[in-house]
Amino acid sequence: MIYYAKIEQDEDGLWCAEFIDFAPDLIVAEGTTLEEALIQAHSILHEYLAYGLPQKPQQRQSEKGFYAIEVSPAMIASLNIRWQRHKLGLTQQEVATALGLQQPNYARLEKSGKMDLTMLDKIAKALKINKASLIEA
Questions:
Q1: 61 and 43 assigned to the same domain
Q2: Are 90 and 126 in a shared domain?
Q3: CB 80 within 8 A of CB 133
Q4: Where are the alpha helices (DSSP H) in the chain?
Q5: What is the pTM of this model?
Q6: Where does the HTH cro/C1-type domain start and stop, copy by copy (predicted)?
Q7: Which of 52, 70, 88 is where one domain is finished?
Q8: Residues spanned by the domain of 84
Q9: How many alpha carbons lie under 13 Å from residue 36 in its C-beta half-sphere?
Q10: Sequence-separated (6 or more) residues with CB below 8 Å from residue 17
């Protein structure tokens, strides 16, 4: 899964990155080099994705000034779980109960996406989806 950051050099020579699909005109990362701005954009993207329910990424491969920021496998699982739960209209409490977990423990799993295959299988069953769908980009 890839999100795209628009990265441009400003008049002061700083490289500024923004995710225009999330918050147009909001600069979310800066760097003195393009590489530094890319590293900052990656870190900020993962922080942003860990909270809330962001939209699915837009395709922007051919647009000038846009750079691909790859999402980690754990974050892909986290996003797919949240998107599927919302699609079904379920709360975290309802899924936690179906899994035999306390809601705060389930929330940590859902936020991080870090879990073993057994738990991933249980979550997939609770969300009525194929386990592979939860880990594909």
A1: yes
A2: yes
A3: yes
A4: 34-50, 73-88, 92-99, 103-112, 117-126, 131-135
A5: 0.78
A6: 81-134
A7: 70
A8: 73-135
A9: 9
A10: 5, 6, 7, 27, 28, 29, 30, 31, 37, 38, 40, 41, 44, 67
Domain match, 21 and 39 both: yes
- The verdict on 29 and 63 lying in the same domain is yes
CA distance 76 to 83: 11
The tokens describing 58, both together, are 């837009």
C-alpha to C-alpha distance for 86 and 127, rounded to whole angstroms: 10
- Nearest C-alpha neighbor of 4 from the set 23, 18, 15, 16: 18
Q: Are residues 49 and 79 in the same domain?
A: no
If asked whether residues 63 and 79 sit together in one domain, one would say no
Choose one of 51, 70, 89: the last residue of a domain: 70
Query: What are the tokens at 135?
Result: 């880990």
Task: Give CA separation, 134 vs 20, 68, 124, in Å.
Answer: 26, 21, 7
Mind listing the pLDDT tens digit for each residue in 44-103? 888 888 876 677 777 776 678 889 899 889 899 999 999 999 999 999 999 999 999 999
Candidates 21, 36, 136; CA nearest to 77 is 136
